[in-house]
Structure prediction request, 66 residues.
Amino acid sequence: MHACTKIPYPTMYAAALALREIQSSSTRRREVGIHPCPQCAAFHLTSARSSARNRWTTLAMAAIAR
Prediction:
């Protein structure tokens, strides 16, 4: 298994917390979604607009809203 070059988040929940922090701050980062990585078995953030409403992003954001 090859390591990827993106920031790995060990869980979907951790990725959701990072995404919420990025979206609520005034940084230049433009991440809008979360996806699992088949290479490293972690979760990553993505700026792809099509991923903003994917099932991983929806599930993760709902989990941190509780």
